[in-house]
Amino acid sequence: MKPPSSVLTDAEWMAQLRRGDPQAFRVFYNRYWYDLYRTAYFKTGRREVAEELTQEVFVRLWDKHATLLIDNVCAWLHTCLRHLVIDYIRRNAHEERYLSHLRNHLLPATPSTERDAEFNDLAEALSRALHQLPPKTEAIFRMSRFEQRPVADIARHMHLSEKAVEYHLTKALKYLREHLSDYSLLSLLLTVLDRVDSLPS
C-alpha cells in the first residue's frame, strides 16, 4: 500500500513518475496546477491562454517523465512555463504588429467605430482559429505571415521540405477561410494573408 501523497517528497514522487506511475503525475498536477495557472494568467492576462499554457507544461512533464533527471520539480515546472509564456508573448508581438499594419493601411482612412469593431472581432477570431490548428501548422503559418520569413528559411528551421511547408500554409489558409467565413472583413484579411510579401520587413 502506497503512503499518502503528503508523506512523500517531490523527489520521491519524481522517482515514482519516472517509472510511469500515474498517481505521481496526479500529485504534481494537484500540487502545482493552480500556482502555474495563476502565474500564466498574470503574465498573459488571458484565462484561456493561461489554461492552455499550464496544460502544456503538464503534457511535457508526462511526455518526458521517463527521462527527466531533476531534483526540484516545482522549479522545473515554472521554468517550463516561463519558456512557454515567453514564446507566446513573442508570437503575439508579431501578430499584434501584423494586425496593426492591417488596421492602419488597409482599412478606410475615415474613422468608423463600426468598422473598428468588426476588425477587432475578426482579429480575436483569427487568434482563436490559429490556436485550433495543429501546433506545427500554426507555427509555420505564424513564421510565414506574421514574421515574414520565406519558405526556404522556415523549411530549414522546421527541418522540413519546402513542399511540406507550402502544404501547411495551404492547410492553414483553407481552415481560416472555413472558420472565419462569417466576418465581413475576411476577404480583405485573406487578400493580405495570401501574399507572403504583403508587409514591409
Topology as H/E string?
HHHHHHHHH
Q: Kindly, what is the distance between the CA atoms of the first and last residues, rounded to a whole number of angstroms?
A: 63 Å
**Name of the CATH class of the largest domain:** Mainly Alpha
CATH superfamily of the largest domain: Winged helix-like DNA-binding domain superfamily/Winged helix DNA-binding domain
Apparent shape:
globular
Structural class: mainly alpha
Main beta sheet: none
The share of residues in helices is over 70%
Give the mean pLDDT.
79
Q: What's the gyration radius in Å? A: 21 Å
The percentage of residues in β strands lies in: under 5%
Number of helices: 9
Kindly report the CATH topology of the largest domain: Arc Repressor Mutant, subunit A
What would CATH call the architecture of the largest domain? Orthogonal Bundle
Question: Your description of this structure?
Answer:
With 201 residues, the chain is mainly α. The protein folds into 2 domains: 10-85, RNA polymerase sigma factor, region 2, helix turn helix motif (Rna Polymerase Sigma Factor, Chain: A, Orthogonal Bundle); 107-193, Winged helix-like DNA-binding domain superfamily/Winged helix DNA-binding domain (Arc Repressor Mutant, subunit A). It is built from 9 helices and no strands. It has helices at residues 10-18, 22-44, 47-63, 73-106, 113-132, 135-146, 151-158, 162-179, 186-193. Helix 2 runs parallel beside helix 4 and helix 7 (151-158) packs across helix 8 (162-179). The radius of gyration is 21 Å and the shape is globular.
